[in-house]
Fold:
Amino acid sequence: MDYIFQTEKVTKSFGGLVAVNDVSIGVKEQSFTMLIGPNGSGKTTLLNVCTGVLRPDRGKVLFGGADITGWASHRVYEAGLVRSFQIPLPFLGLTVLDNVLGAMRNPGESPLRAPLHRSWLDHEQDNVDKALDILRRVGLARHWDQPSFALGAAQLKMLEVARGLSAGAKLIVLDEPIGGVDPASADEILSYVSGLKAQGLTFLVVEHRIDIAAPFADYVYAMDLGRIISQGPPGEVLNDPKVIEVYVGRDEAC
Ligand SMILES: Nc1ncnc2c1ncn2[C@@H]1O[C@H](COP(=O)(O)OP(=O)(O)O)[C@@H](O)[C@H]1O
Ligand SMILES: [Mg+2]
Structure:
């Protein structure tokens, strides 16, 4: 299997409410896998179980061949499964470059290396080079010395992705990356995400603006009432009568 990430029959309840019910999903390496479903269908709970924020009642979570079920979220993050909000929030007063440097694991700061001052300086320069390279990959290179508060909504989202890359992410989990962004900028964000995919990254994305995001998705899972009701290529899932029913039949757009 070329899945980098899987859940196997994951269930999570809150009291009597089964928020995620026997859910198995697979995320292929270098894919953009999208999770859709109306409000309350269990998407956020599933992401929480995937990233170690919540422990499932039953089932397994697998990442890169390891069983990570029940791992604390910081351990999941260190393994390279990064959810944007796990990275310390961008410091809006800091420059774009400093924000990317701040999310980096800096071997120069380890107490063992600190006495090796020369080595530490080399690492600093290396880190700046790496950070600038990451900024190029997300289209923020020319903003490197701007304070982050000067960025637009779309650029702030890309700064989040840049910080994920800087933290060594292999799989980036995004909750509504194009929420509150105009359609042209949304397209730009998704184009950059596609480019990063070609460079080896994998994305698991919850997105409400299905019309804009679907063309970029490789595979879609649709949830309703805690269960997966449809899965497949976007064209198939969006035309699945079961999916249309939960969105249109209930006259609900989210
Ligand atoms: N911490 C919690 N305690 C109790 N109920 C919760 C909690 N988190 C989510 N739920 C419930 O679980 C269901 C799924 O919620 P959620 O995963 O947030 O759905 P979605 O992200 O698809 O909107 C909802 O009915 C919600 O009210
Ligand atoms: Mg949610």
